[in-house]
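During the reporting period the student researcher (J.K.) took over the structure-prediction task from the postdoctoral fellow and processed the backlog of single-chain submissions. One of the processed entries is reproduced below for the supervisory committee.
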Amino acid sequence: HMSKFGFGLLAAMPFAGLLVQIYASYLIERYGNRKKLFLVAGTAHRAMWLIIAAIPWLPESIAPDAQQWLWLLLLMAISTFLANLNGPAWLVWMADLVPERIRGRYFARRGQLGRFVGVVTTLAIGFTLDRTGSTDKLLLQRVISVGFMIAAVCGMMDILAFKWVPDFPPRGENHGMAFGAMIRRTFKNKTFVRFVAFNATMTFAIAYVGQFAWLFLLEEVFVEKSNGVTILDANANVMANVLLVVIPIMVTMLTFGLWGRLVDKLGCRPVLLIAGVMVVHGALAWVFVTKDNWWLGTIAAMTATAAWPGIELASQNLILGVSGSDQNQAGGSAFVAVHSFFIGIAGVLSGIFGGIIAQVMRDYRGEFLGYPLTYHGVLFAISAGIRVAALVWLIGMHEPEAYTARAAMRYMVTNIYSNMQQALFSSVRGLGRLRKKTLRF
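J.K. obtained the following C-alpha cells:
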C-alpha cells in the first residue's frame, strides 16, 4: 500500500541517518573509545532488523495491513540512525589501522569477498520469493520476515567480529580544540570542500534511482498487463534480482581490483574524474530495457556499473586520508561528520525530489528514441544530467602527488593495450609450445 512518494521517502531514509554523524563525531572527539561506540551502535543497528522482521506478525489492531509501510519507515529510521552513530568511528579507526600505501587494494579485496556472498544470497532470495509470492500474500510477507531475521543475526555477528580487531589510540592530540573549531577547520581544506560538493551532487543524482529502478522492472518490464490489471511474471523477482543485484555485483567484483590498484597508483582525483565520466549514462540506460530485449540496455548500464568501484574506493581513500590521526593531529572524525552531513542532506532531498516527480507523473506515457517513456525514465534522464554537473566540482581540485587526468588516462589506455596484447600473444605462444611438445612426441 505504499504510495510513489513513499518510495521516495524509502530512498531518502539511509541518507537522513547520515545527519547524526555530526553527533557521533562529537562523542568520539569528546570521550574517545571509538571501538566501543562502533560495537554498541552497530550491534543495535543490526538487531533492529529483528523488530522490522516482526511487522507481519503483529496483530491487526497494532499494525493494520494498509499501515505496515509506515511501521517499516519508522523502524528503518531508528536502525539507520544507529548505523550512522558508528560510521565515523569505523572510518577513523580504519584510517589508523590500514596503511595508506595499500588501502586501495585492501578495500578492493574486501569488497570483492563481500560481493561474492551477495551473489549467492541474492539468487537464493529471488528464487524463494518467486516460489511463494504467487500463492499467498501473508506467506510472502513471512518468508521475507524470516529472511530479515537471518540477515539481522548475520549482521550482528559481523559487527561483533570486530571485538578482536585492535584499536590503537590516536597518535595526535587536539590540544583542547573545541569541537566547533574542528568542524570549521574542515572548510579551510579546499580539496575536501570540492570533494564534498562533488559527492553531494552525485548523491542527489543517484539516491532515488535504486528504488525506481526496482519499480520500473516490476511495473513495466517483467509484467503482463490485461484489462488494466498488472500481473507479475512467474520469475519476475529472480530476473529483477539478477539485473539489479547479481550482475552488478559480478561486474564490480571483476573491476574492484583494477580500480584499487589505480587509486594506489594514480591518486583519488583522476580516478574520480575518469570513473565519474563513465557512470553518467548508467541510470538512463535502463530506459532501453524491455521485456523482449532487456540485454542491450543492461549491457549499457553495466558499463557504468563497472566504474562505480572507482568512485567508491577513491572517495573512501580520500576521506581516510584526511581523517587519519597522523594527518590531522586528532579531530579527524570531524571531516567524516561534515562529509556525511552534506551527503545526508543531498540524499534526503534526492529521495523527496524523486518521490514528488514520481507522484506527479505516475500516469505519464511518452516515447524516447522509439522506446516507451514513463515517469521512471524521466527520473533516470534527470539523474544523468545531474551526474554531468557533479563532474564540474573536480575541475581545479588539488591533490598532491596525484597524476593529472590526462596522464592517468594515458596510463589506463597503455595498460589496457598491454594486457590485451599479452592475452592475445600468450594464446599464440601456447600454440607454439603445444607444437614443440607434439613434435617431440
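The committee noted the following: The first helix runs from residue 4 to 16.
J.K. will present the remaining backlog at the next meeting.
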